[in-house]
Amino acid sequence: MHTFDLAARGLRELNQALHALRGVQTNETVWEIVNTRGSHAIAVGVDAPLDITVRGTTGYYCAGMNKQATIRITGSAGPGVAENMMSGTVIVEGDASQYAGATGRGGLLVIKGNASSRCGISMKGIDIVVHGNIGHMSCFMAQSGHMVVLGDAGDALGDSLYEAKLFVRGKVKSLGADCIEKEMRPEHYEALEDLLRRGEATGKARPEEFRRYGSARKLYNFNIDNASAY
Amino acid sequence: MCGIVGLFLKDKSLEPQLGALLTDMLITMTDRGPDSAGIAIYGRPDDGLGKITVQSANPDQDFAGLDGELHEALGQPVAMLVKSTHAVLEVPMDQIEAARSALAHLRPGMKIMSVGDSLEIYKEVGLPKDVAARFDVSKMKGSHGIGHTRMATESAVTTMGAHPFSTGPDQCLVHNGSLSNHNGLRRELIRQGMTFETQNDTEVAAAYVSQKLKEGQNLGQALESGLEDLDGFYTFVVGTKDGFGVVRDPIACKPAVMAETDQYVAFGSEYRALVNLPGIENARVWEPEPATVYFWKH
Asked: Which ipTM was obtained for this model?
């Protein structure tokens, strides 16, 4: 295992070292980053099948734009964790701040604690599993992918939603514009089973305990009757 | 952007370290606001004396003989402690208003930073580390304090545009964000008798809270009222003589992290600001909810 002391060596050296492994055959696949102290942009833009453990709590944009890597944060994550992730897995053992997984195009984001506001905003294919609650305006304009919440969701869940599938086990404080509850069909239970397993939540919740929310598809096209609202 | 730090001590044994802890937190927030910085410190008043913190662009000239002249004007002894561009004048509590009037007459160019029983405010243009060093903040003691690093958006980069703002005795407020209805609200508050030093949006929020306190609301109620009346983006941290409050607007874009232990309640715009606090590893750390008022009292 390669241990990297962030306080001693600095962020630029870390991210350059990780970026240098793109497309390279290496035995240095297991990394541990220590002394994070809430720093920003840790392990951003990784594009290699690495196994990275970030010890402690991180600041803005940890694991942003991740491709292929498995990145585990042992503490809590600041705003924009796994923002625009393409593939791979990011696991946050603690809580996540606002806009976790924003605009993510692929891969899996697991948050073991709670996520704050705007979790999964504009998600475009990422799967997000939150063991706790999510804050207000989560999945705003979410386009595709899955959001699984074992706890409760805050105000305006899924406002202006496209085709992302949202599963919430607890209470939803309110639904956003054009977001409605939908029936659970066999393929949804199947998808949930798989997401709970990959999201390290098997045994914590069962698929039949969830409700599904999705787009009413009423905002897809301009409606002349609404012209006065603009 | 802007950075906010705050520390409200529950454990008196930490009080000698308040300035040092806040200075470290403030400097960590430099890259959120490198243009100016300020700090409000609540010392523990024990002498029946009031404090007036004043600021001057020409301190050598303005502060020379000021204590003597004020003594003469009030007929009461005045203690003065000069720290760089600021000076703290100590006068009996019942002489505060008389001292203010006298100061306006004696030194019309000088600015009043704060007035009260325990509050002192120091703020200047420049990097947080330079501002903190200039006023020797790390040596200051107290029960609670609030700091701010500014990245200006709504008004000019000047000493008076820096935070904290104080618009009432022992009251101060810092802000991350920008208000959109401050001009209308300022006119309204002027009609109600408040006075303003700047065109800054945050000063309006501070004056709004002061006005509500004057009307008899407590800090929590004043902040609740603000949720109705203040439009825009904000995370506010507010101090009073014995209280410390936090509120975020309903959208809550502006970041905020809080930590609480048996020894203190701490606020940071980012977790980075909190990492050197004693016992932070075992603190309860959380993000304040949107449109929710938090406040603590000694």
From this structure: 0.90
CA distance B229 to chain A (A): 21
- Are the Cβ atoms of A37 and B255 closer than 8 angstroms? no
Helix extents (H) in B64-215: 66-74, 96-106, 128-134, 182-191, 201-214
- For residues B260 and B286, give the distance between their C-alpha atoms in angstroms, rounded to a whole number: 9
The per-residue pLDDT for A230 is 66
Q: How far is A108 from chain B (nearest CA, A)?
A: 24
A159 in Cβ contact with A142 (< 8 Å): no
* Distance (Å) of CA A205 to CA A122, A168, A208, B95: 26, 11, 9, 66
Cross-chain residue pair B255–A98, CB shorter than 8 Å: yes
Amino acid, single-letter form, for residue B194: M
Enumerate the domain spans of chain A: 98-216
Contact A38 B255 (CB under 8 A): no
Strand-pairing partners, residue B243, are B297
* Residue from B174, B168, B169 nearest B146 by CA: B174
Average pLDDT along chain A, 230 residues, taken 10 residues at a time: 96 97 93 97 98 97 98 98 98 98 98 98 98 98 98 97 97 97 98 98 96 94 77
Domains and CATH numbers, chain B: 3-44+127-297 (3.60.20.10), 47-117 (3.30.70.2540)
B121 contact partners, CB below 8 Å, separation of at least 6: B38, B39, B40, B41, B53, B113, B114, B164, B166, B172
- Spatial distance between the Cα atoms of A92 and A75, rounded to a whole number of angstroms: 7
Best residue in B29, B269, B270 to probe A by mutation, most A CBs within 10 Å?
B270
Do A100 and A115 contact (CB within 8 A), yes or no? yes
H-helix or E-strand spanning residue A229: none
Closest chain A residue to the Cα of B276, Cα to Cα: A37
B272:A117 CB<8 A: no
End-to-end CA distance of chain B: 31
* Contact between A201 and A164 (Cβ < 8 Å): no
Instruction: Let me know: does B79 contact B89? Beta carbons within 8 Å.
Output: yes
